[in-house]
Amino acid sequence: MKNLGQFLIILLLLALLLASTDACKKAHTEVVEKKSYTSTNYKVKYAKGFDIQHHKYYIKLIIKSPYPGSETDHEYILNTAPLKSGDQSNSISVPLKRIIATSTTHIPMLEALGEEERLVGFPNTDFITSEKTRKMIEKGKLTDIGKDMSLNAEMVISLKPDALIAFALDGSDKVFSTLRKNGIPIVFNGDWLEETPLGRAEWIKFFGALLNLNHEADSIFKTIEREYLEARKIAEKASESPSIMSGVLFKDQWNLPAG
Fold first, then answer.
1. Per-domain residue ranges for the chain?
2. How confident is the model over 78-130, as pLDDT tens digits?
3. What fold characterizes domain 95-224?
4. pTM exceeds cut of 0.90
């Protein structure tokens, strides 16, 4: 009887230990799940043209101003899990592995994240001045897909991109409609419409969301923000300031109008 009592006590202790272990595992799992897409650290602070909503199992990317005069938002559901048949047409699996970009403003963002190798197509590659990306062109890793407003749809489809990051002056581009019908998501990017330097720089979070590199994008932006604010403080102490700045930046040089 004594041995039976000891045996029951041991069983009780084992049961309590297992219950405690399961509780710890469950608590740990809940903490991990809560961290998934719920961080408030990655909120958009300066940019006016897009927003990112972090949910438990996905991210909602909202593009507010993809082109001048746009009156509707474009929303994309970004999933880290593979998409199933019947999912919404605006759902995109991330991280994107093969990207087509359409503006030179997209390239520095990809390079800053160390993901320029994901770029497989670009229109007018002659306009690219980045050394990293030019090497990709020379090696045949980056395909020229036509002109800005006249993309070669067949070439784009043949590259099998996970998404095309679109620069658009309006929403009437027929090529985009053709590409959508062939299963290629069109994700509008309106970084060029931002009215502040920090607003424009914050679009790196847009690429962070598409590449599932939210933390990295946020860290890079915080560094840019800190350095910009420090530089602005120095500029505010200047005794003289220009009243007009005119010209166009091309190939890392400012070009001023004649006369």
1. 95-224
2. 997 766 654 556 899 999 999 999 999 999 999 999 999 999 999 999 989 99
3. Rossmann fold (3.40.50)
4. no
